[in-house]
Amino acid sequence: MAPKPHRVLLERMSGYADEAAAYMRRRRVARRPFARLYYPNGRSSDQADDSTAGAELFVAAGRLIELAGKRPKE
Amino acid sequence: MTVIQEARARDTVGIFTDMADATATEVAPGDGAEAALAFLTEMSPDLRGAAILDSAGTVLAAAGEGERWAEDAATLFGVADGAGPEPVEQVHVATEQGEVFALRHAGLAAVAVTDRFALASLMFFDMRATLRELAKEG
């Protein structure tokens, strides 16, 4: 017997939600710290964290993060 | 003159006048900048803190200590500009503790700190819109 139409729709939506959740999990695990610069001509450049500029960018960013502090919980 | 004032006199003006978008915008610190910062805060749920600066590196509005925002923003832009052949337009640094976005637009600059995994395209879009509106008012 063929499944009821609304069940097909629900299963499909559930499948999309699972895919999206899996994507977000992979992104959180895979994403490493990075420093990226963008120029007016559209060019961008990644700065390795073991390069001088990269390390300095992480230090400068760290100071700003410390300054901003934690976001108050709502 | 304090060390910070010396550093700002030496570096900051140069850093901010080297803006990628070189047209300086004169915006006085005050309600307009504060409203723009409030708008940015409202638009960006991941935002922890931010500052808006003018072309000379003066803080127009900031969440917290204005002088430290000015100093740290100048440092960030200084390092970023020194890493390449030309002044940067945008900076995005993602760390384990949070993410930092910095943008120059319309002769102004904005620096924002967010939680991890904030969407960069949306964040830069909101920052750019905020600066554009503020520049129009100025």
Characterise the protein shown here.
The complex is a heterodimer of chains A (74) and B (138). Chain A has helices spanning 5-30, 52-68, and strands at residues 34-38, 44-47. With 74 residues, chain A is of the alpha+beta class. Chain A contains two helices and two strands. In chain A, 58% of the residues lie in helices and 12% in strands. A two-stranded antiparallel sheet of chain A has the order 1-2. In chain B, strands 2-1-5-4-3 form a five-stranded antiparallel β-sheet, sandwiched between helices. Helix content of chain B is 46%, strand content 22%. In chain B, a hairpin with a 4-residue loop joins strand 3 and strand 4. With 138 residues, chain B is an alpha+beta fold. The mean pLDDT of chain B is 84. Chain B is built from four helices and five strands; from the N terminus they run H-H-E-E-H-E-E-E-H. Chain B has a single domain (3-137), classed as Dynein light chain 2a, cytoplasmic (Beta-Lactamase, 2-Layer Sandwich), CATH 3.30.450. In chain B, helix 1 packs across helix 3 and helix 2 (31-43) packs antiparallel against helix 4 (120-137). The interface between A and B is medium-sized, with 29 and 37 residues. Strand 1 of chain A pairs antiparallel with strand 3 (90-94) of chain B, so a sheet runs across the interface.
Q: Quick recap of the structure?
A:
By secondary structure, chain A is of the alpha+beta class. Chain A has helices spanning about 5-30, 50-70; strands at about 35-40, 45.
- Main β sheet profile of chain A: 2 strands, antiparallel
Major sheet: arrangement of strands of chain A: 1-2
Number of strands of chain B: 5
Strand order of the largest sheet of chain B: 2-1-5-4-3
Q: Flag low-confidence runs of chain A.
A: none
Radius of gyration of chain A: 21 Å
Rounded Rg of chain B: 14 Å
CATH superfamily of chain B: Dynein light chain 2a, cytoplasmic
Going by CATH, the architecture of chain B would be 2-Layer Sandwich
Instruction: Work out the helicity level of chain B.
Output: 40-55%
Pick out the low-confidence regions of chain B.
Answer: none
Number of domains of chain B: 1
